[in-house]
Structures are given as C-alpha cells and as structure tokens.
Amino acid sequence: MGESEMTKTDGGDEEAVSRFVERFAGEMTAAGMQRMASRVFAALLASETASLTSAELAERLRISPAAVSGAIGYLTRVGMVSRERDPGTRRERYVLHNELWYETFTRRDQVLVRWEKVLQDGAETLGPDTAAGRRTAETAEFFAFLHGEMAGIMDRWRAHKQGRAAEAPQEA
C-alpha cells in the first residue's frame, strides 16, 4: 500500500496516524504487552480495514519482516489477531478479530475462574488459620467478585452497543 492510499484510508495524514500508533503502542507496552506486538496491534487498529499484510506492516512501522512475524506470532497466540489468505495471492493478511475487546475480556474472565479454583484449593491447603491461607482465600474471593462483575459488565456493553446501533443513521 502506497503512502497516498495509507493517508486516504486511515482518515488522517501519515505522520499523525504514525504518532497515534506509537502513542497507543507505548501505552500497551507500559501495561505489559511486548513492544513490537503493541506496535503491530496499534497499526492494525489504525488501519481502515483492520487488516494488513506483513509487507504493509513492515513499511508502516519501518521494521523488519522478522519483527512483524514475531509480533504476529504473539498476537495470534493471545487471540488478538488471525491470519487470512489475501484473495488471489499467496500472501497472508493479518486481521483484528471482530469484537476484539469483548472476546479478550471474555477469555480473561475464563482465566479468572481457573485462578479462583486454584486459589481456593491453595487456601484450603495453607489453612484458614494461617496468614498465607487467609491472603490466598481473599485473593480467590477477589477473583470470584471480578468474575461476577464481568458478566454484568459484558451484558451492559452489549446493550450499550445495540442502543448505539439503533440510534445510528441508516446508510442508503
């Protein structure tokens, strides 16, 4: 994809889009995501189609194809990106999942349930009369609380999104 197409499809000038990508990637890196994966994810998010090829990512981010490959491997493993064949070519296109954040938090919710169970078992093993047992039991209780709240949050998000869609002007 050439510069003019990038500028046109991303709704802003190339430099401003690049600043946004780097700023958001920096925030994701600060939160614990791998730096290159953060940059690739942010570039996909900022692309009009939410999909780019390896060559497009390398060009936009000024990184090597190997760096793109490593980042895509990570993003695929954590379920944030999928690979698709570019129609009519042998190239792969990397695509953000639909409802990415919903899916990500739903998977995190499943992790909370597993952690809660392990922590409950650990609290029993450590004993309710020990500081370690009480601390572990409280951590399990915290994850149980988060799990319960997450279901309500997701329900409210779906209702909010449906309401927004109903209010949006219909395209002809």
Automatic annotation (TrEMBL):
Occurrences of domain HTH marR-type (ranges): 32-92
One Pfam family hit: MarR_2
Protein's UniProt keywords contain Transcription regulation: yes
GO molecular function, one term: DNA binding
Segments forming a coiled coil: none
Matches recorded under InterPro entries: HTH-GbsR_regulator, HTH_MarR-typ, WH-like_DNA-bd_sf, WH_DNA-bd_sf
Keywords: DNA-binding, Transcription, Transcription regulation
Name the UniProt record assigns to this protein: GbsR/MarR family transcriptional regulator
